[in-house]
Amino acid sequence: MKHLTRRRILAAAPAVLAFGGPLLSARPARAAKKYGPGVTDTTIKIGNTCFYSGPASSYGTIGRAMAAYYKMVNEQGGVNGRKIEFISYDDAYSPPKTVEMTRKMVEEDHVLLDAGPLGTPTNSAIWHYMNQNKVPQLFVSTGASKWDDPKGHPWTIGWQPNYHGEGIIYANYILKQKPDAKIGVLYQDDDFGKDYLRGITDRVGTKGPAKVALAASYETTDATVDSQIIAIKAAGCDAFVNTAIPKFAAQAIKKAAQIEWKPIHVLSSIGQSVAVTLKPAGLENSVGIVTDFYLKDPTDPQWKDDAGYKWWVAFMGKYYPNGDKTDVNNVYGPSNAATVVQVLKQCGDELTRENVMRQAANLHNFQVPMLLPGITINTTPTDFAPVKQVRMARFSGQRWELFGPLLTGEIG
Amino acid sequence: MTTPQQETVALGVAAPAARQAMRLQTRHWVLAGAIAVALVLPFVFQGFVVFQLTEVLIYGLAILGLNLMTGFNGQFSVGHGAFFGVGAYVTAIMMQRWNVPYYWTLPPAGIVCFVVGILFGLPALRLRGLYLALVTFAAAVALPQLLKFHGLEGWTGGVQGIVVNQPDVPAFLPIIDADQWLYLFTLAITLLMFWGASNLTGSRTGRAIMAIRDHEIAAAAMGINAPLYKTLTFGVSALYTGVAGALSALAVQFVAPDSFSLFVSINFLVGLILGGMGSLPGCLFGGLFVLYVPNIAESLSRGLAGVAYGVIMLLVIFVMPSGAAGFARYVGGLLARHREVELPAHRATPNAVARPAQRVEHQRAESAEND
Amino acid sequence: MQLFLQQVLAGLANGAIYAGMALALVMIFLAIDHLNFAQGEMATFSTFIAWQLLAWGCPYWITFVLVVAISFVGGIAIERVLFKPLHNADILANLVAFIALFSILNSADGYIWDYTIKTFPTPFGSKPLFGSVLIDAHEAGMLVVTAVLLGLLYLFFSGTRLGLAMRAAAHNPVSARLVGIRVGWMTALGWGIAAAIGAVSGMLIAPVVFLDPNMMFGVLLYGFAGAVLGGMTSPGGAVLGGFAVGVIENMAGTFVPYVGRDLKLTIALLVIVAVLMVRPAGIFGRTTVSRV
């Protein structure tokens, strides 16, 4: 590591001289100043795309919470003395718009990097562009497994545990309880729904004795998922993986209780919020449901004395007072932004796109207040999956009770 | 800044039966000037602005397709995003799965959409108004589902979509970059298709199409084969929008089911109405509106981007109830009244084709009667 | 057989959701001869007002009456402020105004009340009815309220002077004006009634699907399909159309092999288009005769 750094200093020196920059490298570990696009002695410009309008505008709060986090960082003195200028554009969950706004931020605003852009189809649309133009597409806010591809796409890195791996974890849990389970899956006919489903079917396999008896999809325009739940029950399933978004997850829990169906019920991390999903579904209907966590649920009473949670409440109160404190998206945003800030810190004065990617692939045991205790962020040049671990939890009727060890979603 | 010129371009195209040779000539000059400006633009602006302008042309072309059907033929569609999507997927599949060069994918994209359009046009023979709207609406709602359908995933790539390679700059034009080349390519196609639309609407066929819009029964009584023309218009309209979709696949370099939601169709409709029904240059105004105004709305307020967009739409429709083209006609009328004092000859010219503004009036009176 | 019955009943429960919206759409169609794209968003907004009043401690039935009244006045206000100035513009100019209204209301909902789903109380309770797992009290209540609304509308349109005047105004504005009907106010009244029906259906739907700014978008799609299937000019047809869409969709999803589950909406729409081929103005719609 040290060897590399020294080589970089040598390589950087002529460039700095050529630009007439002052040579102020005080510490040996930090290279002389070397700036990529969007960086000055006082500012770092970073970009983002998010859904502030359109059909998925409920996720727009992620971008606003990120902006709030960068505001806090700036008020506390910025990153190594530089203020972060966060430019976030609306793409309305439309891939063509993402391309347009991303090109604007790269080619007109000259941002150093794209920080936490939201959505799978939207990120897929700029995947090629970012890698061709060597612009860091950092910690994309989506759980598709394809972002962990350091060889093919060295300029793109994911952030959260991927849906495919979570699917494997759910299947593992079910198979442990009931090796011959007949599994029913409710999934959104969408990228994340199909990733979950693929994880489950990959793990269950075709050899038996367990099998996926029925996978029923829904569209976000469906009024209810009652029909799907009835069909899954009728298929004789004794295990149920509920990977729906909160609205439909809650309907499914309620409907299952109404038709007196009590399978092994696994709820995905998309819809696990106590206040947002389980309360509407009925806490009494939710007892015994199992899920996996990597972020702290801000509506779970067990965290009320937790230092990380207290920090988050203070942060929301001061920097994002309009934000909904029951919305897990407002936990996601700052946690993702904190990782970006860590990368920038590690970059020191060498704020080039190359170094950003190098540092993004060089995170060691980085802790974020709202990540579950014990879960840290780790990356290496061959591992582009920052958050890999999750823990299982079971709902007691009031709160989620964590159980078992930290898990990663791999088959075998 | 490009708006006034482009509008004038299309104005020149839009009035095929221009009443005065002199005026026609000025229009030709204006048209030539506007094309010259359009040719220079990509060399003035940087890459992403060129990309945006390319998208404006593409949306303008898609809206032109919708206009042929709704503005000229009076058939109402809330599902043209479906044809846009089909065109885009034809290009993406041919290029990425079968290695066909990009320029050869445009004709098949157009033909496939033409056929699909004809198929959707058949129900249109029996249905009108909202009932017809439901059919097109069904197309827009069903397309993303079909694209995601597991049985077709081998072709469509399912929810993951297809990444499309950017067209290479041809060897004989080494000095321009890929964005500029795609812009010029799109401009050429757009001009060609606007020219075609202008000829179509100015021809005998075009008059038949418009006669059906104005009064279908009367048109039929005059010997116009209404079912044939209506179906054909549906097909041609889908062809135009489909070719626009094919170009969009090249520009965006990515197609996915989420790129072709119902909102795309609604955007086209907004662009059409704000640009001006039955006006060819209005389509480009519509393209500018649907591309740029959401960006403006978002810069006004992030939390209330949708409110800002809605308010802007309302303001525009209050100021220009018959769209930009109607507004331009109104302003043009004011100017003409000034000039008429000097050139009384204007009035004497026989009115070959009723002007669109009058047609709208006519149509409204008609529909009131029909009820 | 059990599965079939359950799916039919689940379809009817969904159908009740669509029927309410279809009824509001038909109501506005009868008043202005066009489809109001913002109808669903108006209903959502009304429901949010109700949610807010309830959160402030207002009793359910007082809230219910208040919100219906507020929505009625709000509907009239929207017509007077936004659509009266567009009265002379092309009908498609109105369409842009609908879309603008949609965008404004949806965005305002999210800004004021956030996007996380909210529970909304039911006045009927959610206990299973007749001790069976097939239908619960709220679903049954929805069916009853929809039927009552339909009956009231029928009485209004065929039994009252005002109702007749409204029909005349929508049907033939010129002649209506000649016999002394204030056509402009009749249109506004239509907006008011449609908004009030929307509010009722919003408050009935919310306990089932949960309240969020996008609650009505899907319902509007299905409601539109139901209204067209039944016939845009027939309130009773719209209600039946709504129920039919709910049932057809569930049947397609459950019993059509291979394609059914992923394409149930597509199949439902295909069925509707096929029906329209036979009955171009919907099953119960009036075919307009045009005079040359």
- Unreliable runs of chain B: 1-16, 344-371
Q: From the helix content, strand content and strand pairing of chain A, which structural class follows? A: alpha/beta
CATH architecture of chain B: Orthogonal Bundle
Total strands of chain B: the figure is 2
Order of helix and strand elements from N to C terminus of chain A? HEEHEHEHEHEHEHEHEHHEHHEHEE
Put simply, the count of helices of chain B is: 17
SS field, number of helical segments of chain A: 13
Q: What does the radius of gyration of chain A come to? A: 22 Å
**What's the CATH superfamily of the largest domain in chain A, by name?**
Response regulator
**Main sheet strand line-up of chain B:** 1-2
Structural class of chain B: mainly alpha
**Side-by-side strand order of the widest sheet of chain A:** 3-2-4-5
Helix content of chain B: over 70%
Considering DSSP H and I runs of 4 or more, what fraction of the residues of chain A is helical?
25-40%
Cα distance, first to last residue of chain B?
44 Å
Written account of the structure:
- The complex is a heterotrimer of chains A (412), B (371) and C (292).
- Chain A folds into 2 domains: 17-161 and 304-381, Rossmann fold, CATH 3.40.50.2300; 163-293 and 391-407, 3-Layer(aba) Sandwich (Rossmann fold), CATH 3.40.50.2300.
- Helices cover 40% and strands 16% of the residues of chain A.
- Chain A is built from 13 helices and 13 strands.
- The longest helix of chain A is centred in the last third of the chain and has 19 residues, at 329-347.
- Chain A is globular.
- Chain A starts with a helix and ends in a 5-residue tail after the last strand.
- With 371 residues, chain B is mainly alpha-helical.
- Chain B has one domain: ABC transporter involved in vitamin B12 uptake, BtuC, CATH 1.10.3470.
- Chain B contains 17 helices and 2 strands.
- Chain B has helices at 3-14, 21-44, 47-70, 80-98, 102-124, 129-148, 153-156, 178-202, 204-214, 216-221, 226-252, 262-275, 280-300, 305-319, 323-340, 345-348, 356-370, and strands at 162-163, 254-255.
- In chain B, strands 1-2 form a two-stranded antiparallel ribbon.
- With 292 residues, chain C is mostly helical.
- Chain C has one domain (2-215).
- Chain C contains 11 helices and no strands.
- Chain C has helices at 2-32, 39-55, 60-83, 91-113, 137-159, 161-171, 173-178, 183-209, 215-230, 235-255, 264-278.
- The termini of chain C are far apart.
- At the B-C interface, α6, α10, α12, α14 and α17 of B face α4, α9 and α11 of C.
